TrEMBL record, chains A, B:
Keywords: Membrane, Transmembrane, Transmembrane helix. GO terms for cellular component: membrane. The keyword Transmembrane helix applies. It is found in: Membrane. This is Sulfate:proton symporter. It comes from Litchfieldella anticariensis (strain DSM 16096 / CECT 5854 / CIP 108499 / LMG 22089 / FP35). Residues 452-570 form the STAS domain. Coiled coil: none annotated. The lineage of its organism: Bacteria, Pseudomonadati, Pseudomonadota, Gammaproteobacteria, Oceanospirillales. It is a multi-pass membrane protein. One of its GO terms (biological process) is transmembrane transport. Pfam families: STAS (PF01740), Sulfate_transp (PF00916). The chain crosses the membrane at residues 12-35, 41-66, 73-92, 98-120, 132-157, 177-195, 215-236, 268-292, 304-323, 364-381, 401-429.
Amino acid sequence: MLKRYLPILTWLPHYTLRLFGADLLAGVIVTIMVIPQSLAYAILAGLPAVVGLYASLLPLLAYTLFGTSRTLAVGPVAILALMTGAALVNVATPGSTAYLEAATALALLSGLMLAAMGLMKLGFFANFLSHPVISGFLTASGILIATSQAANLLGISGSGFTVVELAVSLTANIANIHWPTLAIGAGCLGFLVLMRSRGKALLQWLGVGKGLASLIAKAGPVFAVVATTLLSWQFALAEKGVAVVGIIPQGLPPFSFPSLDLPLWRELLIPALLISIVGFVESVSMGQMLAAKRRQRISPNQELIGLGSANIAAAISSGMPVTGGLSRTVINFDAGAQTPAAGAFAALGIGLVTLSFTPLLHHLPIATLAATITVSILTLVDTQMIRQTWRYSRSDFAAMAATIALTLVEGVEAGIIAGVTLSIGLFLYRTSRPHSALVGRVPGTEHFRNMARHEVESVSHVALLRVDESLYFANARYLEDTVYTLVASHPELEHVVLICSAVNLIDASALESLDAINARLKDSGVTLHLAEVKGPVMDRLKNSDFLDELTGRVFLSTYSAWSELKQPRE
Amino acid sequence: MLKRYLPILTWLPHYTLRLFGADLLAGVIVTIMVIPQSLAYAILAGLPAVVGLYASLLPLLAYTLFGTSRTLAVGPVAILALMTGAALVNVATPGSTAYLEAATALALLSGLMLAAMGLMKLGFFANFLSHPVISGFLTASGILIATSQAANLLGISGSGFTVVELAVSLTANIANIHWPTLAIGAGCLGFLVLMRSRGKALLQWLGVGKGLASLIAKAGPVFAVVATTLLSWQFALAEKGVAVVGIIPQGLPPFSFPSLDLPLWRELLIPALLISIVGFVESVSMGQMLAAKRRQRISPNQELIGLGSANIAAAISSGMPVTGGLSRTVINFDAGAQTPAAGAFAALGIGLVTLSFTPLLHHLPIATLAATITVSILTLVDTQMIRQTWRYSRSDFAAMAATIALTLVEGVEAGIIAGVTLSIGLFLYRTSRPHSALVGRVPGTEHFRNMARHEVESVSHVALLRVDESLYFANARYLEDTVYTLVASHPELEHVVLICSAVNLIDASALESLDAINARLKDSGVTLHLAEVKGPVMDRLKNSDFLDELTGRVFLSTYSAWSELKQPRE
């Protein structure tokens, strides 16, 4: 029981020196690798760069205690940063104290929601984001984020949370391009794209071992940061108008007590919910994928608690909403992390950096960070998935296209809400017209098949109607219509048998419809029977008056109904 | 085609003198009967009483043209009046011109939505309100409306749209009870309850014929109105503090051009949508019930257009949102209406009243109207349905209870939204854990049954897994888990056969899950096969790469899979 809620107890007692060595190495590598992206995502959310470091510290320790994935690395991620910025800009001015406070309030709210969902075992909720919707949302968010970085790469001002806002803002300032900034941005962009696409092969060609080559290629952003920081410091580029990170306060994250302002919470409620869901889906799908690679398992409900605790930790340490990040997790996994202790070591590393080394980041150009974001975010754009979905299912594609369009034009919240609503709507629409078939007997057997597709025996005074879906409120009326149409078009009918072999559930609405069908058939002199009712469904029916009212019988098999009814009434 | 969108063309050409006589009589009766409730519902919505008359005029003509029900009577109804009041009070002050304008804007918006939904054939949307949710919503609304009338019956001021608001407001003013008002209110209440419960029997006992007795008993509100108006006029009760209807402008409804103010529309969007849905559900379920009694049919999609046109008509004639009303429809049906022409005659009657007879209503006490509403609304409270639902299904009951509680405590909008969300949520939760079973062969046959329930043959290296539900995003992951658990617990497995006889759909998310299952089983040396894939599902799969990747085969029947695989690999 305790182990279930504190997964650390499952691995810590068996911790060995070998695991320690592997985790420590991974921790050191992650520390160095995630500094650029942590700073970048904080800036993307409109927050001071240091907030990104704060959010990569305590949350990691919390996840080490409560998380079930062995390799997930928690911290600020691009999508959540974008969503955070979009939410905060509605309640406070970027740069103000209120904005910082709202960020911790958002993290707290989202953390509480995640933890509550975990305790209530609502992990299954994540299933309601269909794959095409997730993929469409990530693609559109990637495009949005890349566009939002264009201003930083060009050295102009420009902001917004929709493509329209961004386009207007960029066009208005396009004349003010700051060429030195653009040079740094474009240089980094080229270097990073090269490292990502050809780096490993290039290094191996130069004689570097395969593992090291892969690691160095991944460290592209670190080299870019070091090189451009040195450049910027050497030539005092900040004085020439190149935007740099500037002063980062030294020291551990200050304790923050998130605002308990009710109107603020009310305004952040929906954004916090969406951030929680998107963060959870991103994190858990990656966690499952990586766990599968090592034949481990993660528990979605405990993951909710783990991510919830990480966000609460972010909230009390001046951070921002966090989740399991794609790129930092892949780095952690590739660097050989074996247990969540690797996360704790990375937290210690980041702690060391904030304590002592932040002055080194002073001259880091913002354009370098923008290039880092742009390159890493474009992996989210999944054109192959778009093509596949189009080929496979037009309605899934419609949900995906709507998600992409709304995310781009109306922003991340509208996009994700529209996507979920459409997925659910399309599904309900499909099941609201359940498949049903009139069946007949395969001659000489006890089998019954669809009359429209097979050569089968039938008699005109008995209709054997097989219903291929559970009966519930959304399709109850459709069933009524089907039966009434059947009876209206076959005046010689004496018996209607509903074959319930595929009916796993009859809810209260469907029960009322069955009542109505029974009464209406009675008026027309037609008897209603049921056949092949499953055990649990039958138990339920016995709790209602339906079986007393039923004009006909409940047959165990279609064959026994057939044998009993095939002789017409005298 | 034209007939489909103008159903009047289906009956007008065959109109006879006999039908004319019947419709004319029904029209006259409806005119007299609906005056009290039309006034009362307008007051319930916080509007001047005359708006109720206006809304019973042009909308009826519009429905006569576009509606498909032969007997539905359109006009203001209690629930919509309550919802209208709750919506308008957020955007304007009752009594102001802005409030009146918002009412027509709400009617227009709701009319446009209904008509658009009709043209887009979205009538099936109404199915998403499950019966228990509708019944819970009506019950709670009935209680709310009855409570809101207590102030008028007691002659005190008191208002609100939740039981809390109403209770606070009533308690604060309870000391100011106006005894003459209470006397009129209580007198009417007693009289109306008596007429409703015993009136018909009493009149028959006095020797009145059955049909006439029924009609007179239903006319209770008319007698109450006439008697208390005369009383109030005779004794000048208005001067003694009894609230009366007061001056009602004479003349046909003035033309109104609803405000096109965008922020106002935005605020009214959700209320208009809810009013449209609730109005449609109330109207269409009653229409279907009555049509069934006379073996007629109504078309839900065309009904949307009919109700939409009625609301647009209300919007341009200084009215309020309307729909098919329960009590006025029953009156119309019982009075023998044969075609929608009865509605047109009632509209003419109401027109005559607004033109000439409104001064007669000047002295009508508000308490009389309150008594009328209270008695008619209590038919909505359906305790039997609550008990039945409790017995039959706890989850349906939970949705119903939440709807009732939220409607009472948070108001009609919150109630209906919670009800729909819960219904859909519960359904998705159920289908997100699809029923599946490992099956084995019934010895000596080609039948396969659940191994857990029947004595069947099986071999340890083949798992025959029957999935009893369509595969889609919400249950795709559950299927993955099921298969992985199966493989993990049966190391001797060589083949997994998914029997898809109950699978009517595999959406894009489920396809990805099947891909993942296939890849993961391949890693473990297990072959994945499909069996009994339905035609349409197979066609879809052929549009994807899945069949190329599939490690095993697609078998036509479970038996052929069994015959092929039952010999272990060499």
